[in-house]
Amino acid sequence: MSTQPSKTLETFPNPHPERDYTIHMEVPEFTCLCPKTGQPDFATILIDFVPDQLCVELKSLKMYMWSFREEGGFHEAMTNRIADDIVAAINPRFLRLTGRWNVRGGIWTNVVVEHRQDGWAPAPKVELP
After folding, report:
1. What is the extent of the structural domain holding 33?
2. Cα separation of 10 and 35, whole Å?
3. Where primarily located (predicted)?
4. DSSP reduced 3-state for 52
5. pLDDT tier, 2 (very low <50, low <70, confident <90, very high otherwise)
């Protein structure tokens, strides 16, 4: 196999660091293991961030997400860990990471994690007619 899972998140320079803009990514096939049963857990991971100086490279993000396939962890821990790793790699102005976990025992779980750089605030919302 030419590619392997990896915990390395590669980055590249933000092409427009002078401007706030949002990057939205969806990872619909995230898989890890339930720490209680060892059975697979599935989620869609939604990543929204306002980059500062760096952006995350997509292939490395794919390999990073793949690296959790054989790891056990609670939904809350996995979602926070992914957010922490992305923040450590790119230090975005803002990040919102949502884990939409598939039903388990008749219960849907969504975990939302946010990060803001010190002093950063979004521009006021513009309402157009």
Report:
1. 11-116
2. 28
3. cytoplasm
4. coil
5. low
43: number of Cβ within 10 Å: 25
**Phi, psi at 16, each rounded to 5°:** -140, 65
Known binder of ligand: residue 57?
Answer: yes
Which residues are catalytically annotated?
A: 34, 41
Residue 71's domain is classified under what CATH number? 3.30.1130.10
Task: Kindly report, residue by residue over 98-113, the tens digit of the pLDDT.
Answer: 999 999 889 999 999 9
What average pLDDT does this structure show over 63-88? Answer: 97
Of 48, 20, 30, residue with least CA distance to 114? 48
pTM for the structure as a whole: 0.94
Residue 124 inside a domain? The answer is no
Number of domains in the chain: 1
111 is in an annotated binding site: no
Q: Is 26 annotated as a binding residue?
A: no
Residue 1 in this model has a pLDDT that exceeds 60: no
